[in-house]
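User: Please fill in residues for this 120-position structure.
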């Protein structure tokens, strides 16, 4: 079983940057696909970007391409999400999730979320 804890959220002005971190505890961290998701008030949760287990291929959603970057540190059991040029529409609770190997598989483990607010 994997436990996930997000950190790094906060308030940032439009055009600013934030880096989120998802720390995992549990065995075989590198085996899992790790995805970042977000949920804005009144909206469904949506996938933001995902990294496959083992090979580490990444899959960003169209709206964040060129602005958000996912990275993985196997030694620290963490997955980071670097977010640049943030816009008000990026405001949401951001969650990390973990699933078996590939991003297309079900995400079985979830963190508690961290709030990101983009506002002037």
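Assistant: Residues filled in for all 120 positions:
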């Amino acid at each position: 079983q994997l436990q996930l804890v997000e950190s790094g959220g906060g308030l940032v002005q439009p055009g600013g940057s934030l880096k989120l971190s998802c720390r995992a505890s549990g065995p075989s961290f590198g085996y899992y696909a790790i995805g970042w998701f977000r949920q804005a008030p009144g909206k469904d949760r949506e996938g933001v970007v995902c990294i496959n287990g083992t090979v580490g291929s990444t899959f960003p959603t169209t709206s964040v391409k060129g602005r958000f970057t996912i990275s993985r540190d196997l030694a620290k059991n963490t997955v980071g999400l670097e977010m640049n040029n943030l816009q008000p529409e990026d405001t949401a609770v951001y969650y990390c999730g973990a699933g078996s190997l590939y991003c297309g598989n079900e995400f079985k483990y979830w963190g508690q979320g961290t709030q990101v607010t983009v506002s002037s």
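For context: The mean pLDDT is 95.
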